[in-house]
């Protein structure tokens, strides 16, 4: 269920005390304890027992390091300790078998490209082969990857009807050739698609939609997304045109920003209400390149908040753009099962509103205090690594977060 951050809920974030202050106080307390311990041992015990002091110091320093690390990351996760332990187990044990069938020169095995707003699909296809999660032994696999790229089909001009036929024939071929699907009725199988054509292309295959895990960029109720089974794939527009933003609030003098096509009801309302406002920078069309190079991207650096209304689907690459450029995303949607929503506490680094809140948008943003703004921005910088694809993949990046979400769903009943 979508979390809301409206007029009545915008002050529910954690106290605005800065993390560095709390960490400093913790360090001071530990150092004070060590000082008293040292003085007590120095004047009450013989010299040979100094090793006892060293052991106390080592334990205390170790605890201090763990406490500071916990303080650094606790604010962005629902359960930081659970995530830390489960993630470590996932990296050690998780194995995925990739079906080898299909002509790699058509729609199987390889992505269409690693650029553009649907590049998440391509990166996953490449990353799974570059990672240590892949196994060539299906008997050791926790999950089975169905490597068919609907985005690649779209690039070759395949119609939706033919896509459905191609996917159906491919999956039915895997079911008849291998014994693995029938052991769980497909519950330990998954496929990945970022473009909504992939969601449409598989709608005609109920066994795939209802049984297997779907990692998709458009997690909408109207396409049958099931939150506890499926995975919300982050839609990332890579490569990013400009470097990461962050720790730069003093440069963010504008309140809020949005520019885009009016291809949904909420975008039409947003533009109509606020396009002439003096504090909200709202444009009812994408910024023309004729105005100058990278004008659109540069706007992210000077705004505190970046408005992210849904378009033709609930998802938008604008959300991960905002995260990358250090502009606090304002999610404006009645339903969006946000990427990694079961891991990350989105309330701690974004503002989440219902579509009806668009009428009070400016006042809601202005009511967020400076202290709350600082905390949101600091936490936003912390999550940036989770929304970045890399080749080869690195720990805690977008690929590993998707794999962790899959790991959480790998326990299935075998028949």
From TrEMBL:
Biological classification of the source: Eukaryota, Viridiplantae, Streptophyta, Embryophyta, Tracheophyta
Keywords in alphabetical order: Glycosyltransferase, Golgi apparatus, Signal-anchor, Transferase, Transmembrane
Topology of the protein relative to the lipid bilayer: Single-pass type II membrane protein
Exostosin GT47 domain residues: 90-367
GO cellular component: Golgi membrane
Statement: the UniProt record of this protein carries the keyword Glycosyltransferase: yes
Family membership noted in the UniProt record: Belongs to the glycosyltransferase 47 family.
Name of the featured protein: Putative glycosyltransferase
Major site of localization recorded for this protein: Golgi
Organism whose genome encodes this protein: Senna tora
InterPro entries: Exostosin (IPR004263), Exostosin_GT47 (IPR040911)
